[in-house]
Structure formats: structure tokens, C-alpha cells
Sequence to fold (446 residues):
Amino acid sequence: MQQHTETEENYLKAIYHLSNVTISSVNTSSIATSMSTTSASVTDMLKKLADKELINYEKYKGVKITRKGEKVALNIIRKHRLWEVFLTKVLKFEWDEVHTMAEELEHVSSDELIKRLEAYLDFPKFDPHGDPIPDQTGKLEINDQMSLSSGDAGVKYTITGVGEHSSAFLKHLAKYGLKPGITVSIAEIMEFDKSMLVKVNKEKFHLSLEVSKNILVKKYGII
Amino acid sequence: MQQHTETEENYLKAIYHLSNVTISSVNTSSIATSMSTTSASVTDMLKKLADKELINYEKYKGVKITRKGEKVALNIIRKHRLWEVFLTKVLKFEWDEVHTMAEELEHVSSDELIKRLEAYLDFPKFDPHGDPIPDQTGKLEINDQMSLSSGDAGVKYTITGVGEHSSAFLKHLAKYGLKPGITVSIAEIMEFDKSMLVKVNKEKFHLSLEVSKNILVKKYGII
DNA sequence: TTTTATTTTTAGATTTGTCTAAAATAATAT
DNA sequence: ATATTATTTTAGACAAATCTAAAAATAAAA
Fold:
């Protein structure tokens, strides 16, 4: 069933993620950056993935993921996110600690294992970072969230996710106790730099635009 | 901490297991057989493991695992067996289904993950096949069990483990409902071929010597 | 529309783990 | 004790994934 190497799976995952950020096709160098490797290595791999019909690849023209490739990518993402839920909910890891472990666990091949894990976790729809978990067929619920940076002063919001997944960013949020599920209200928005003062459980602190941009929320009460 | 490849880990595990069966040093061809590969490949790997001081290797003289190599092997075995407990106890897999999945899971590197898993499972001392689970330092409880084949007619025994782990053998036992925890009494031992008639919950059936040899038991009541 | 700069691809090496076939060593049998 | 057989190691090759450096193609600027 899963006739792909771990490396191929990782490339597909990266291409899938980049496809959701890029308008047209994904270019070689952006894949190289996101995989921390060289463009030459990426080109080699693109040929291999194209041979397997997981991507459409035209020399010098970049890459588009195929339906088939997308299904493979979504299955890896499904595993990754379910393992993240397991690690936080069952083994009580913090949400900013689980990514690396899930990167290894996502390549464990058994689909039956992941089906049972999903049932054991009671069919969660989102991972600890608020990202949706694809079902077996690759379908995923879209969480219609907005960026905290586009919120209004005086309004209460519930954090539903993050727009950036780097360990540095997550640990920064963790320091303030900010994570999905937490309620924040915007106390004041500074005109000159769009930074904001927010209130969380009586505590107030300052968030730069860079940070508030990457905090995803819904209006409080609307779930 | 774990600077070894998955392949190196698998070789070490195989060598460790063979060391427990062999009197003196482990020879190349037995490793090749147990790894389903060629002697040439084994020789190549032995050099690499010797360079890392995980084994003592003398050309043409076979191999002895070092203290350091044993620690690595025991850590893999620890992970393997804890994951097997997780798969059976938590995800409700049958004891004869979990080996292959555990072979993948055992290479997930995080020691913290396995520590938490162990605690979550309430520090099990044996895996679903009755094999002891090493602790963090590599120590393991020895289960002083005997082979059912050396049992006496008219006596009741509790199954504690198996002496052979092939899927074929485990599925054969599963068919009769035989697995660790089950109580069997020996109804009769046939003189001519040492086969035996056993009783399990009112049902009687016949076990060949080949099978009874590989069923490990304790006298009923003695745990 | 040339020239320049950037991006992408090729060419050729390297590393890991594997293989087959041949050579070297050890074990066994006469 | 020597010949035969079996085991183990070497030699040389290959596939996967990577790299650096150079060539080719595309995009941007003059």
C-alpha cells in the first residue's frame, strides 16, 4: 500500500504544505529551504516523484502535486496530527514539545494502527496546534478562523490555532500561557506599529504584530 | 545519545538474541539467516559495529556483543516490548498481531517518550508474549518458567510465555485460545512421541512435542 | 533587447546498505 | 596429513539520497 520511502513522504508533505501557501506551482528553491537541503538534491527527488506520478513536474517550471500525491501527503499529515493528540492528551506532553516525536511516528506504516489510535482518542478533529486532522479518505474540516491581528479592541477571542509552527514561536507563546483553548481580549491596539495589549486571566501583556499575526482565533463564544 | 542507524540497531538486536541461544560467540551465517540477508552484508556491518565498539569482532572467529552494545540492544528491546503492551492493552490488538508494528515503533528515538509510555502503562514487567521488559538501565526481571513439555500429567499450569515468536506459531496457538495467562492441565502424555493431551476450559486438545516445547509455563497458583 | 543576475539542472562524487562471484580461511573426512 | 567441504571475507558493483561545482535556462535590469 505505502510503497514510498520516508524521504519521499517528507518531500510530499513539504510540497503539499507549500502548495497551500503558494498561488501557482511550487519552485525548487522553496522546497530546498523547507527541507534544509540543496536545490540539486530537490531536482533529483522531483524526477523520482514525477516518475511515480505523485507530482507534475516540468523542468524549470516548478511542481504541482497530483491528486495521488495529495492523498499520500494527507495520510502522513493525518498520522502526524493524531500522534500529536496522543502525545499531549494521553502522555501529557506540552503542545510545543510534540512536533519532533510526531515527525518520527508519522512514518510508522500501519493504517490499522492509526485507525485504532483515532478511535481510542475519540476521533479528534484538530491537533494541539489547532490544525485539522484529515480522515481516512483525506477529507479535513476547515476551521474558519481569523488572525488575532485583525481583531478589534475591546473584543474577546478564543485561540484556535497558530499560523507558524516553529519551536521558537511555540515556546514564546507557551511562556505567556497562550495556546488553543485560551481566551484573550484585546485591551488596546497601538496605532503606530499595530502591536496590541491583550488580557489573559487578569494578566496583561504586549504582543508585536509579528506575533499577533500568527495567532489564530475565533470570536469568543462562537465555536 | 542514540547515534546509531535503524539497521545497526536491528543487527545489534539480532546479535543480542543469538548470544542468548549460543554458548560461545555468534557466527556470521546465523546473523545472516536471522536478518534474511547475505554473509557478505553481515561481514560489512560487523566491521562497522566493531569500529563503534558495540561488538568484539575477530575475522573468521565470530562475534561477541560488548557491554556497550548490549545496552543499546536492551534499549531497543525495551521499546519494542513496551509498544507491544501498548498495542494490546490500549489499542486492543491481539498478541499475535503486534510484532511487526512494534518493529517500526521501537526505532522512534525519544527516551522521554518511552519513559512516559511506560508510566502510562503502569510499569509492566512483561510483554504480551511473556518476555521481560528491561528497565531504563537495562535490567530485566527473569521469569523462572519451564517448558510445558517437561510438565507432568495431572498437573495444572499457567502459560507465562513462548519459546518461539514466529507469526505462524503464534497464530497456531491463538487458534486454540492459548496465550499467556491461560491455565492448562495436562490430561495425558503419550509415551511414543511425547505429544500431550491438554485441557483448557473443559476443551481438550492434542499438542505435539514441537508445540509443547515452545509453550512456557509455571505451576498453577505459583506466580 | 542585450546584458546581468538568479534559479535550476546536470555532472560527477560520496555514504550507507546491499548484492554476486571469487578468494581466503577454517573445519571435516578420508 | 592431506584433500574435500563449508564458512567467511574481499572485490567490485549497484541503488538511494545526498553533496559541490559547473553548465544551462529563465527572469530581471540596463
Chain B touches chain A through 17 residues (CB under 8 Å). Helices of chain B lie at 6-19, 28-35, 39-51, 67-90, 99-105, 111-120, 167-176, 209-213.
